[in-house]
Amino acid sequence: QQQVKQSPQSLIVQKGGISIINCAYENTAFDYFPWYQQFPGKGPALLIAIRPDVSEKKEGRFTISFNKSAKQFSLHIMDSQPGDSATYFCAARGLFSGAGSYQLTFGKGTKLSVIP
Amino acid sequence: DAGVIQSPRHEVTEMGQEVTLRCKPISGHDYLFWYRQTMMRGLELLIYFNNNVPIDDSGMPEDRFSAKMPNASFSTLKIQPSEPRDSAVYFCASGQTNTEAFFGQGTRLTVV
Q: Which of A8, A69, B16, B36 has its C-alpha lying 20 to 30 A from B2's C-alpha?
């Protein structure tokens, strides 16, 4: 019930193209949906995040689309560049019952390769 | 702030040995998380603390794993005895209520 399902597992996009990564969740108690970017040998770093009261958030070339009724959200990378090649994780966070309770659940990740 | 600091960055140990991973969270953060990352299972939450108190350790795979947070600026993850299947990258992250988690660089553990 607290899973986040992410697809595709890997993605190859040509430079200048659009990269799209999708995630779905079940638990409606999730209230914050961040995307993390991870380069080899590094820890995941926050890329962009959205709350369920908005349907879209854009930061530069990165856009999150959020569909609350379908319990789905996606990351779009416009004008993809070779430097965007990394692993992307969607996540969902909820403050569940219990003092101090805080759940940040990650998808399995998508390895993006942007080819010149 | 230097971010979340983990040590060591790499650890190679023999099966059966005790391994201790260390983490210094970002000052002022009241949540601390330990994650394990493998190709097969992705990022798994092992345990997290709030105000130095363990809140959920349901992700700890076995009794061989233990974690402590003696104060707000330090936490350890210990594996005793270690096994080859424990080989993974272990991440520490910290955060506050209503903020995202900030990750350290990770410790790559290899058990031979």
A: B36
Alpha-carbon dihedral B92, B97, B98, B102, rounded to 10 degrees = -20
Mean pLDDT of A34-41: 94
Are residues A106 and B106, on separate chains, in Cβ contact within 8 Å?
A: no
- Judged by CB atoms closer than 8 Å, whether chains meet at A89 and B43 is answered as yes
What are residue B86's DSSP bridge partners?
Answer: none
User: B111: which strand partners?
Assistant: B13
Partners of A2 in beta bridges: none
d(CA B89, CA B11): 10
A72-76 average pLDDT score: 97
- For residue B100, how many other CB atoms are within 10 A of its CB? 20
Structure token pair of residue B70: 């003696």
Chain B residues near residue A42 by CB distance under 8 angstroms? 105-106
The residue of chain A with its CA nearest to that of B105 is A43
Residues of B in contact with A89 (CB under 8 A): 42-43
Residue B26 — pLDDT band, cuts 50, 70, 90?
very high
User: In terms of C-beta density within 10 A (0-12 exposed, 13-18 middle, 19 or more buried), how is residue A11 classed?
Assistant: middle
pLDDT value, residue A98? 53
